[in-house]
Task: structure prediction
Amino acid sequence: MTASSEQSGIELKARRRPRRALRICAGLLVAVALLAAISFVARHALLREAAAVWIVSDAPAPADAAAVLGGGLEYRPFAVADYYRRGLVPKILVSNIGAGPAERLGVLRSHVRANMEVMEKLGVPGSAIQPFGSNLHDTYEEALALHDWAKQAGAHTILVPTDIFATRRLRWIMRRVFGNDAVVLVPAIDPPDYTRNDWWKTEGGVITFQNEVVKYLYYRLKY
Result:
């Protein structure tokens, strides 16, 4: 091999190196773009799966009573009114949570009164509704008060619906408080502004999910 041919070979290899590097970079860019596209398409499925793993739910069944806990005026009384109309429960209990300043001034309706009005408009007679507890501040106090009512009434099964992301915490604390004294069923209810299939599309859904994860861990550590 002559010196000129050797020089030509070296120059040819030198020209091929940047081309090979460009092909490798182009391939990497294509792979990254494909992964990004797959992640973008699959993210909805992953977020739905995350909710499905977190949410626990009991099917509504015949019970001695259904309970409306504090908050959730837009969906909790609607759910229990439906249970009453379907003949699943003869009685509805409403958590007697503490009154805020506006309620004490008479500017706003109390939690009990507001829930009663909703259910009465939905066909539940006032005689079938009663408050339970007194000045209840959180879910743990509500569980204790509901347990006291169940013991006094001799109740064996109670329906306590709640929003989808609170189900895990609520079912755990109810089982913790009730033990084997009674069965507490916790049906999961989709709030009006998001569902388990699109919760990440609203600020309320994202905030509620992350808050419930923190509250669940807090309850497990505290109680």
Observations:
- The two ends are 86 Å apart (CA to CA).
